């Protein structure tokens, strides 16, 4: 059999060059391999290391493979230590500075595999999930976006969509968090009292606002 490092690299290469339509088939195949225990556990440890330390597309690809594996085995992402790593590395300061929306999207997909229903209040996992929920709200609000770079908002769209879904999965009261997100976006889009007028409304902020409320409503 192949060394664990080679398996991890092969998975990254496969996902990295796959089209959107191919990703679903890859996830189905990977999930089956995980259920049949044909992928060594150390492969996922290597992928976590890549997700934390690599730069560029490899970070997003590693997190995407982890989320795929977690569709068959939640434990791949569903622990306090791994969720903290996701918080600090995949949706942390480095990702913000690089505007790495691909990694944000992959992290949000991984968070959709978390079983938040069985989290004990006050536990380490509950605490880190609360911190992640706060960070997701920041991302959904578009706080990381640069209004003078339209491509930045284009990248935000797909990431925000998955972040909203992740928030509803891990948050105990997502409707409260989403209401606060919408109130904040109203202020940043239309002014503190919502009365600045359409002539002073930034088009990218307006686009993010309607995108967010549309997906929250769904």
Please count the helical segments: 11
- What's the end-to-end separation, in Å? 45 Å
Beta-strand proportion? under 5%
What structural class do helix, strand and pairing data support?
mainly alpha
Any idea what the radius of gyration is? 18 Å
Overall average pLDDT: 93
Instruction: Categorize the overall geometry.
Output: globular
H and E order? HHHHHHHHHHH
Which consecutive residue ranges, at least 5 long each, have pLDDT under 50? none
Count the beta strands.
0
Portion in helices: over 70%
The major pleated sheet works out as: none
Topology at a glance:
Layout: H1 4-16, H2 20-35, H3 41-53, H4 57-70, H5 80-90, H6 93-98, H7 101-111, H8 124-141, H9 150-170, H10 174-190, H11 203-217
Helix pairs in contact: 1-3, 1-4, 2-4, 3-4, 3-5, 4-7, 5-8, 7-9, 8-9, 8-10, 9-11, 10-11
Structure characterization notes:
This protein has 218 residues and is an all-alpha fold. The protein contains eleven helices and no strands. It has helices at 4-16, 20-35, 41-53, 57-70, 80-90, 93-98, 101-111, 124-141, 150-170, 174-190, 203-217. The protein is globular. The termini are far apart.
Provide a brief overview of the structure.
By secondary structure, the protein is mainly α.
């Amino acid at each position: 059999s192949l060394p664990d490092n080679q398996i991890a690299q092969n998975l990254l290469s496969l996902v990295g060059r796959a089209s959107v339509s191919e990703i679903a088939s890859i996830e189905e195949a990977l999930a089956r391999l995980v259920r049949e225990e044909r992928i060594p556990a150390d492969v996922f440890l290597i992928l976590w290391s890549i997700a934390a330390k690599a730069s560029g597309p490899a970070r997003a690809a590693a997190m995407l493979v982890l989320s795929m594996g977690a569709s068959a085995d939640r434990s791949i992402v569903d622990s306090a230590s791994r969720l903290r790593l996701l918080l600090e590395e995949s949706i942390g300061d480095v990702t913000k500075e690089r505007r790495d929306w691909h990694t944000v999207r992959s992290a949000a997909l991984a968070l959709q595999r978390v079983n938040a229903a069985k989290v004990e209040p006050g536990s380490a996992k509950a605490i880190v999930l609360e911190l992640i929920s706060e960070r997701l709200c920041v991302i959904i609000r578009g706080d990381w976006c640069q209004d003078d770079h339209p491509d930045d908002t284009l990248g935000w769209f797909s990431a925000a969509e998955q972040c909203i879904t992740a928030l509803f999965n891990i948050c105990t009261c997502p409707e409260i968090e989403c209401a606060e997100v919408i109130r904040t976006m109203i202020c940043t889009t239309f002014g503190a009292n919502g009365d600045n007028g359409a002539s002073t409304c930034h088009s990218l902020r307006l686009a993010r606002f309607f995108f967010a409320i549309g997906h929250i409503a769904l």
